[in-house]
Design goal:
With 373 residues, the chain is an alpha/beta fold. It has two domains: 237 residues, Rossmann fold (3-Layer(aba) Sandwich); 71 residues, 2-Layer Sandwich (formyl-coa transferase, domain 3), CATH 3.30.1540.10. Helix content is 34%, strand content 14%. The strands form four sheets. Strands 8-7-6-1-2-5-14 form a seven-stranded parallel beta sheet. The protein has a three-stranded antiparallel beta sheet with strand order 9-10-11, with helices on one face. A hairpin with a 6-residue loop joins β9 and β10. It is elongated, with a radius of gyration of 24 Å.
Length: 373
């Protein structure tokens, strides 16, 4: 998909993105995808992620390219009086400011929220932080993997007999960015009533804890420390990756009807009437024996063909694809989830689809700018 016209829901909203790394830039990119005019201000040496490669294009890492489309970019040294004055001139025109400086940095420069909120009463100030400004961990820097470790995510990720494992993508940073978007939109909506902006914060620590469902819900109810279950769901079975005669497949059987359909499809209709597996709770408790019986039967099937049969029967199932196979899947193209812009830039499309005001892709990363459009 290639698109250039701005028909977005946020057209007319001006966003000053002075954040770097991931959570803040991801927030700014989403707002830009949906029509906001986003001006990204970087230090003279550029956002750190420009160096996070390989691969590189013209000396800039793919990591940066994946987070900074639909922005125009300029450089300011906020450590200098001249840079701060230039920033204040831009703040005067902005609806939203996104930053993720270490707590206290902007305050030392005299341009923190408290110093500027009365001067710019309509400004929505969004901070993506590690742990918030106060409390036992307040003002400490936060990094995705460290927060995964501290919030329990690593403890429930990995094989049951293995050690704690980091989720293989920066899930905390990305969810913090999504929470920042939600916060900005909530504040803009409230501004319609009050005429005033407000301070919005999305902390990595809070975002990490928010991801713990259903493990936190289980612990609140029974007090048992959640454990690693590999690919298997802690509450539902079969909701797991299972071996077949060829490639493994993932099953997501969530109710008794689906389980009965699954058993019929693989030639074990009697299994759904077995007292050990008749209902969801029993299947979860007796999962080890059930997995053995299923994989013994699935050894006679071609995995890819079986997925098609199961989906046709209303049983959620999927092949286990590599990243390149997923990005090249025909449905990925149909959903316009790979986009291309001038200069051959390609990236992941916007996942939220609006019927009248769709996302658009107007500025490739590194588009220069000196002010709002």
């Amino acid at each position: 998909m290639t698109a250039t016209t701005n028909t977005g829901a946020l057209a007319g909203i001006r966003v000053l993105d002075i954040s770097r790394i991931l959570g803040g830039p991801y927030c700014g990119q989403i707002l830009g995808d949906h029509g906001a005019d986003v001006l990204k201000v970087e230090p003279p040496q550029g956002d750190d992620t420009r160096t996070w490669g390989p691969p590189f294009k013209d000396g800039v890492a793919s990591y940066y390219h994946g987070l900074n489309r639909n922005k125009r970019t300029m450089a300011l040294d906020l450590g200098s009086a001249e840079g701060r004055e230039a920033l204040l001139a831009l703040v005067a025109e902005a609806d939203v400011l996104i930053e993720n400086f270490k707590t206290g940095t902007m305050e030392r420069w005299g341009i923190g929220y408290e110093a500027l909120s009365e001067r710019f009463p309509r400004l929505v100030w969004c901070r993506v932080s590690g742990f918030g400004a106060d409390g036992p961990l307040g003002a400490l820097p936060g990094y995705d993997a460290a927060v995964q470790a501290m919030t329990g995510i690593m403890s429930i990720n990995g094989e049951s007999e293995g050690g704690p494992l980091r989720v293989g993508l920066p899930v905390v940073d990305m969810v913090a960015g999504l929470n920042a978007v939600i916060g900005v939109l909530l504040a803009l909506q409230e501004r319609q009533r009050s005429g005033r902006g407000q301070f919005v914060e999305a902390a990595l620590y809070d975002s990490g804890l928010s991801l713990l469902h259903p493990h936190a819900a289980n612990w609140f109810l029974d007090g048992r420390t959640p454990r690693r279950t590999g690919n298997a769901h802690p509450n539902i079975y079969p909701y797991d990756a299972l071996r077949t005669g060829t490639d493994p497949i993932f099953l997501a059987v969530g109710n008794d009807r689906q389980f009965a359909s699954f058993c019929r499809t693989i030639g074990l209709p009697e299994l759904s009437d077995d007292p050990l597996y008749r209902d969801a709770g029993s299947r979860s408790v007796n999962r080890d024996g059930l997995k053995q019986r299923l994989e013994s039967q699935l050894a006679t099937f071609d995995g890819r063909q079986l997925v098609d049969q199961l989906m046709a029967a209303g049983v959620p199932a999927a092949p286990v694809l590599s990243v390149d196979a997923a990005l090249e899947h025909p449905h990925t193209a149909h959903r316009e989830m790979v986009v291309e812009m001038e200069g051959g830039w390609r990236g992941i499309g916007a996942p939220v689809k609006l019927s009248r005001t769709p996302a658009s892709y107007r500025h490739p990363p590194l588009t220069p700018g000196t002010g709002f459009e």
